[in-house]
Design goal:
The structure holds 3 protein chains of 3 kinds. By secondary structure, chain A is of the alpha+beta class. In chain A, 27% of the residues lie in helices and 33% in strands. In chain A, the strands form 4 sheets. Chain A has a 6-stranded mixed β-sheet, with helices on both faces. A 5-stranded antiparallel β-sheet of chain A has the order 13-17-14-15-16, with no helix packed on it. A 4-stranded antiparallel β-sheet of chain A has the order 2-1-4-5, with helices on one face. Chain B has one domain: MetI-like fold (Orthogonal Bundle). In chain B, strands 1-2 form a two-stranded antiparallel sheet. Chain C has 13 helices and no strands. The relative contact order of chain C is 0.14. Chain C has a domain of 177 residues: MetI-like (MetI-like fold), CATH 1.10.3720. Classes of the chains: A alpha+beta, B mainly alpha, C mainly alpha. Chains B and C meet through α1, α3, α4, α5 and α6 of B and α1, α4, α5, α6 and α7 of C.
Chain lengths: 333, 290, 275
Amino acid sequence: MGSIVLEKVSKEFGGLDVIPGIDLSIADGEFVVFVGPSGCGKSTLLRLIAGLEDTSGGRILIDGADMTRTPPAQRALSMVFQSYALYPHMSVYGNIAFPLKMAGRDKAFIDSKVRDAAATLNLTDYLDRKPRQLSGGQRQRVAIGRAIVREPRAFLFDEPLSNLDAALRVNMRIEISELHQVLKTTMVYVTHDQVEAMTMADKIVVLNKGTIEQVGSPLELYRMPANRFVAGFIGSPRMNFMDGAPAQKYGAVTLGIRPEHLVLSQSGGSWRGRVELSEHLGSDTFLRVEVPGIGALTARTTGEFSAERGASIFLTPDESKLHRFDANGKAMP
Amino acid sequence: MATLHTRSAARLMMAPSVILLFGWMIVPLAMTLYFSLLNYNLLTPGTAAFVGLLNYSYFLTDPAFLQAIGNTLLLVGGVLLITVTGGILLALLLDQPIAGQGIVRLLVIAPFFVMPTVSALVWKNMMMHPVYGLFAWIARGLGLQPIDWFAQLPLFSIVLIVAWQWLPFATLILLTALQSLDQEQKEAAEMDGAHAISLFLYIILPHLARAIAVVILIETIYLLSVFAEILITTGGGPGTESTNITYLVYAQALLQYDIGGASAGGIVAVVLANVVALFLVRLIGKNLDA
Amino acid sequence: MRTSSKGHHALITTIGWIVGLLIFFPILWTFLTSFKSEGDAIASPPTFLFFHWTIENYVEVQSRSDYLKHFFNSVAVTFGSTLVAILVAVPAAWAMAFAPTRRTRDILMWMLSTKMMPPVGALIPIYLLFRDWGLLDTLSGLIGVLMLINLPIVVWMLYTYFREIPGDILEAARMDGASLGKEIVYVLAPMAVPGIASTLLLNIILAWNEAFWTLNLTAANAAPLTAFIASYSSPEGLFWAKLSAASTLAIAPILLLGWFSQRQLVRGLTFGAVK
């Protein structure tokens, strides 16, 4: 019901090749996250799927039908915008009812649908309010409600949580994931926050400069990044990278090891370094260790650990968790 | 944003405006140009003949023309000077906390909304009339001879009237721009030791530069074509002392019925306006980001 | 502003009021004179408030049937040209604000430049064409001309207001299944109404006060107030009080309108360059 296939989809803006050519398959019911740094084309790709931008080349198939030239209104997709894009002159009820009104449904039908959506999203008490009287989180839910009532083939989310404060973001993240469990509709979600990507996705598409770096489940990307870019993008704090002698020792041009895969010791280990900075989060402690000949490494350890600035410390990488990259940045098996 | 099906709709929607304005600009201008090459007088309609640039040579060598150009520049320059300096001062004044500020602002803004003909009549009769006017009464009260404004200082009188009308415009624009000045910027300057004059010269004036540029540009466009005030007060006189280019063309066309000559004058006026506009835009163009 | 000394505040207030009253004075004087008898109007020394107030001038002006006719001419020409201008300009401004192309900026600049052309450049042909087409001294002819001269400003103002409407709200409407027409009717128009109203106000002011074409293209029949008041200018005996009454009636509507629309004026007349 909600499968999306992109065949060699490309987009150029004024001579600039923003997306050279993308092939991607999204299965019905999947929660797919497009993630990548600013300017990588993830929002553009989403808007191409929505039909808000025209492709420069390639085809977009929704449920097997070629919708490349179909206007957005007829693609049966719903979009939740970063700024929510609520209609300021309509009440919450009016906002949610609008798509159904456009579809020409009768009043009774609209009413029941709107109230259902409002109930699902805890908006029943706010149906008469105008958007400007709502908080950020409430507006977000109205935007989602408006998207739900259409019963679209797929939901498109364009960085919907960026404008919310941290605590609210965590809550909404959970709500959206739960929504997906309930509705089982395909969801395509764009974000620059890799934590959101990791926690919500069935499948992550990592984009960089308009091309796909890797597609896979969150754990796949974490454990087996296909290249240096993905390895450095997924996982927080960032993976440590080393060139030169330490990498060559393992037969690679670049070596990567995640902070959580470094074992610390006061007594001995592979690399000896000096603690420059320690960050105490309570649950974890992150140390920035300057190792001569290698550079600065970030290491993660338990919350109880403490070390003074300038103290000497030993780091040993978990050999099974080392990542090796060749001269092109590609992962070596 | 512009997807396929909106682009052609967009072109269609712009069409009426573009076509209308294009017609409005091209057709009369082309016809004026055409007429300027004819010896065409409304009193002798059948004898319109092609005379090439004859009208232009008459027009440009007519002493009235040179005076009209001078008057036009004096008029525009004079009004600009009064309204911009007055506007800055008034804007600074109105930016201060004044009791009943809203009303004072309304009082200052009012002249701009008075139609030019009423303005001219009120000033001509009730303010500047040499016998019954208020200025005359004040002069007599001071033991001075009342000035016959429109006979002795025709152009200056008109400058005063027009400046009175446009001062609110300049004030309003400059006040708006002034109030957009970040309060924190002023405070930072004060912390840095700036007193009122320095604050004005180094912080406020540069901030106003763009608004001043806009005021000058907009006013010039309108001031080049001052008409009603001249028609009603002096009729261009005495002689041609208060005739500007616009009035000269009007007089030649609708009072002397010399279509050919007046058309040449019209073209000259258009060229003049373009020159001034080009000059201005270049001079202050960097302040504009319209 | 920090609280300045009481004395400073009082001084500024005094200066402000004096300046304001000085500038407003001619209008005030006209208003007062309109309530005087003709004899009082030219009396020397002039009386300020303590004269015999009468409304005979207003009665006289109203009873002259041609005054009312010219008042309605002003109304017709003002609203007529405004309405047509809005009808033509709204689609154009929509297209330029929401579907801009590389040429949009140029087209807008060009439209503005048509406003910079001195009216004398068009006076002669328009006059002759109107004469030949029977449009001289007609309301429709005047409506046409006034619409054209103000169209650039109307388009510009609407353009700046439309651009302030967040684009993603319109995209949301599109995603919600709205066709172009429905998008305009249900979403764009309600959000654009304040901007359109402001533009309307400004255009009314500009059209009501226009004093070049209204003076040259009309005579007894279609003359709006601008031209009609001008006919008071040839001396026909004592007439100042009546002139003041006629003037007050002519300027009062726009004065009030202008007082309410200062912000729109700034935006409109500076083509949005100053906000």
